[in-house]
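Usage example:
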Amino acid sequence: MKAVRGLMAVAGMVLVGASAGAYAQDNDLYEKAKSEGNVTLYSATDTAQVQSMIDAFKAKYPGIEVDYNDVGPEGTFNRVISEAAANQVGADLVWSSAMDRQMLLAQQGLFEAVELPEAKAIPDWGNFKNVLYATSVEPIGIIFNKNVLAEDKVPTTRAELIAYMKSDEAKDKVAALDPERSPSGFQFDTNDAKTTDNFWDVVAAFGAAGGKTYTSNGPVKESIDSGENALAFNIIGSYAIEWAKSSPSLGVMFDKERTAAFSRVIGFTKGAPHPNAGKLFLNFLLSQEGQAELARNGLPSVRTDIDASIGFDFDSINERVGGHMQPIPLDETLVTDMDNAKRAEFLTKWRDLVRNGG
Amino acid sequence: MSVNSQTVEETARSSDRSLAHQAVPVRWASRVGDAVWYRRIVIGLLALAVLAPIALLVYQSFLDNPFFQANAKLSFSAYSYVLSDRAFYEALRTTLVVSAGITVLAVPCGAVLAFLLNRTDLKGKSIFEIIVLVPMFISAIVLAFGYTVSIGPAGFLSLLVKGQIGRVPWDIYTVSGIVLVGAASHIPYAYLYVSAAMRNLPSDLEEAARTAGASVWRVLWDVTLPLVFPALVFVTALNLLLGFEMFGLPLILGDPKGITVLTTYILKLSTLFGVPVFQMMAVVALVIVLLTLPMVFLQRHLLRNSRRYAAIGGKGSRATPLRLSTTSQVVAIAFICLWIFFAVVLPVGGIVLRTFVNAWGVGVNVFQHLTLAHIAGLLNVPSLKRGVIDTILLSTVGAGLAVCIYMAIGLAGHRNRGASNVVLDYMILLPRAIPGLIIGLAFYWLFLFIPFLQSLRQTLVSIFIAYTIVGLSYGFRLLQSLLLQISPELEESARTTGATIGQTWRDVIIPITKPGLFGAWILIMMLFIRDYATGVYLLTSGTEVIGSLMISLLATGAMDTIVALAFVSIVLTAVALGLAIKLGVKVDA
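Running the assembly step on the lines above writes:
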């Protein structure tokens, strides 16, 4: 008896010791972060969407201020390169929707690799050498106006989209982001050109229908919402699902054969002013708790263990879009495939088909 | 103190207007006690503040990479790319067409409006005087969205008309659409400066013309307008400049059909190269500056005898309004109301409607979709709340400080016969020539790389400085027109009794201009509220202002938030106007 009790006591202590060890590591980081007192982010995500995640972080780790700067994808890139050059690094974490620019910054050595416990839950395609992490997976789809285009007539495959745009009722009523002026439009279009075989047919049909192009998501959404346009393609689906919740006229549709998806990418800055707070926040962002808060606000999680009542995770969003989601992988082809000559060629081809009527 | 022969000559000439067309030779010798050092120092500081960002842009334009990168080398590659790009020339041509179109429409309308409201007995003057300035204080983004909601293809007025005649007879997504909308919103600029010049003209010349049998319109054309020639020249140059640097309007209205102007052409370059190409942005900005230099030169040439336009003299005189016939009254009021409907009611109505509905357009009965959610949303996000508060702070305190700075510069340029006056004229218009977005970027770099400015970068001070420089051309001209109307007799009598120039300024000039200073403060306040492009690169937590928040929200499509912010900015502007009325301030100085 005594031996069993002794054994159990030892086992108990070992267990406590083991978990205390893990907790002690987290606690250690927390103490250092608390003495830094602040974590600063440059981001391209609306504050409204991340507010609850920030609040959850502050509740779990009191004593650390979160300085969240929504400066947009251009702003994040500009700031990182110019601040590094001026030796005035201001952000600990840089979180942007422009995957290719984040990769560029990583290649220029402006980010540092960080090993984090929560990184294990991030799929391989979403982890670039522990330097860049995908923090969401957002499908790209079609938005349409329910009053102008009946739901059963909305195209559900690329072939149907081409047929729709060739029809009379689509004349002057289709929209898309302009790849010449919108970096995300460029990213989605070039990804389509790379991974599908009928992209240029889509563009030709778009041009023939007198397609209207926009520089940013706001005006596209307005034009669909008001019925000025009937349909817009290659739009960020996560935004669209959220828009549809508060705009009764707006509908969302995904290609049931194949749905591309992009991710918001985060990196840890070299020379970060508050490195421990930065690591702590990044770990929280990738954890189930942090990802759940993002999912709650319409940013589908890249993990697979989020409760469906809170929001989408990888599996549930994949199901929502028809089961054929293809995330854009976080690797160097993001930049190498698109050198200046290829960009110019792509854009010239686009312009010829859309502006000059093909 | 010697009274030199030049003064005697001029005093004699001023009382003999028939000689007014002879040129007065300018002598460069400065008089003793003319505050030469004050002028030189103030203008020198101004030149530094204006030229620093421009010099940085010039330097950047001759490099092949961002200037702060180690691999940046001197090169003409930016120039050769831009100047051989067909898209650049298309954008340049569109810009020139839009700019000229706006000026040709806005300046005459503004001048006639100023005449009607200042020199005639038009009914309803007091109401019109306030309303006519409103389009000026609505930011271009707000205007553009407002027009989309009211007269866009699915706008409420368009759908109404479509219901009656089967189609919408207009399209705002065209160059003509941009010109008409731009002209309607630029009329107040022309009105403002011409009005300030007309306000205190004595009526003796106009009355003389009337007694000789001239109609009211003849009087306008032959007497009043020539008397305010400097203001006309200035507003023409200003409107052309404003046309070149327009960004928000062509961004929204030019988007769907791919109409590009110089400022939106820059966006194309960034995507083409995958990274921000600052060197090419700098080239485009400098091209615009080079286009404006001849304008400033021309303006100086035309105004070298501005002394002839001084009208507030030692002798008092009454301004009697000209009487309009009933037909003229009706026609005039009808046109003004029509313009106000187009320039104010349509866009503001559009925004107000959009703020309180969650669906609009084809097949929607908006009254079934009323909501307060968009406004409530503003209160839930700290950065948005901060943005509203910072905007209020910047536009009240900041505008007040800016007026003091403009007054100091104005005094430095007042009666300045030195070479520094030439410098001043160019310094004033230069910042306006550069698109707000790029000046903001240049200031961002200055605050980032210059050691003693670094601590200011993430505070409102950086935005204040950028706004003050960008607002130079409006603010300084406002104060200069106040000062120009004071005839030298008043100052000279002070000097002959022994006052120093400082005392003259303090005891004679500033008291006379005081009422105008309040008006200038309200005006600058409203300009600061509506600025959107300058603060974009300086945007960070702590420097949010409504304008730049709206731009950054465009990218994520948060339209509901954008219109709620637009609504708030309209409310703030209305409050400022109301304040002006309550204080009995003449808003057009």
